[in-house]
Amino acid sequence: MRPFQILLYSTSAALVLLSATGYSQVSDMALDSNPQPIAGMASASEDNTDPSVIEGEPQTLGNGTVRTYVALDSQNHPQEVGVTITAAALAGLPQEGTELILPLPFQAESTAIDHIAIDWRPHGHPPEPIYGDAHFDIHAYTLTPAEREAITAQGADLEKAYKTPAPEYIPAGYVMAPDSAEPRMGAHWADPTAAEFQGHPHGFDHTLIYGFYEGAIAFIEPMVSFDFLRSQQDFEGAFALPQNYAKPGLYPTRYRIAYNEADQTYTVALTDFWQP
């Protein structure tokens, strides 16, 4: 997630994200709180059988490793995609920001997610009162690596990054963060009702960000702080969805963070995929 400066306020009609350079209005569409899975597909919480888990190749992170995986239900439909991080990876991490590009197993190809990139942010990023602590950004990209390389977020390309999506493509309640376009990513959209924006002190444990480029979702990004991972706490929750998507495929409706004591691994995953 790119550094950006923000100020939030609410009105009876909408939440608005402001900066010195302008504002972005929130989508006021109602959130579909109960999207229906595709026929024959069970969510992770509904399926009583253990899903098959196919893992990607591990890559070195700190003193440990990180790898992608896809979990399938009994009919081989993806239930979730995510990353597993070994406990040893939380030691020996670089002192500078680092990105690892992690291919997904081919069994995830029916989802809209092309690959995952995990970004280690040892010094956080602005706004420091909120995102200034060490954390991981887990970008689940709908774009290919080649498509990402074409995003410069400079000159004429800024128009593509800041292109206003059609209303049905905007996740309910999300607003574009001004000046948030980042090379190889696009513009960042945040939920002003997220816990990190409420009251003082700020800071965050975990949150979910969307990215847009050329008016379409470019990535879905769970963020999790280093301290939250190290605390070995679990979390699972839904996030806001758009009414429709520009790219076909299965899309997640929830995300989770978990620690497995037996395996000494952390999981950050997008879950409960459905067919829009």
How much helical structure, as a percent, in the residues?
Answer: under 10%
- Count of strand segments: 17
Shape: globular
Mean of pLDDT: 85
Low-confidence stretches: 1-33, 36-49
Please report the distance between the alpha carbons of the first and last residues.
Answer: 26 Å
What is the count of helical runs?
A: 4
Q: What structural class do the secondary elements suggest?
A: mainly beta
* Total individual domains: 1
> Major sheet: size, sense and barrel closure?
7 strands, antiparallel
Q: How much strand content do the residues show? A: 35-45%
Can you write the helix and strand succession as a string? EEEEEEEEEHEHHEEEEHEEE
Radius of gyration: 18 Å
Can you characterise this structure?
The protein is mostly beta strands and 276 residues long. It has one domain (7-271). The protein is built from 4 helices and 17 strands. It has helices at residues 128-131, 145-149, 157-161, 226-230, and strands at 7-10, 15-19, 22-25, 52-55, 59-61, 64-72, 78-86, 98-103, 115-121, 135-141, 175-176, 187-190, 206-213, 216-225, 235-238, 254-260, 265-271. Strands 4, 5, 6, 7, 15, 16 and 17 form a 7-stranded antiparallel sheet that branches. Strand 1 and strand 2 form a beta hairpin. The radius of gyration is 18 Å and the shape is globular. The two termini are 26 Å apart.
Please specify the SSE layout and strand pairing.
Layout: E1 7-10, E2 15-19, E3 22-25, E4 52-55, E5 59-61, E6 64-72, E7 78-86, E8 98-103, E9 115-121, H1 128-131, E10 135-141, H2 145-149, H3 157-161, E11 175-176, E12 187-190, E13 206-213, E14 216-225, H4 226-230, E15 235-238, E16 254-260, E17 265-271
Antiparallel strand pairs: 1-2, 2-3, 4-6, 5-6, 6-7, 7-17, 8-9, 9-10, 10-14, 11-12, 12-13, 13-14, 15-16, 16-17
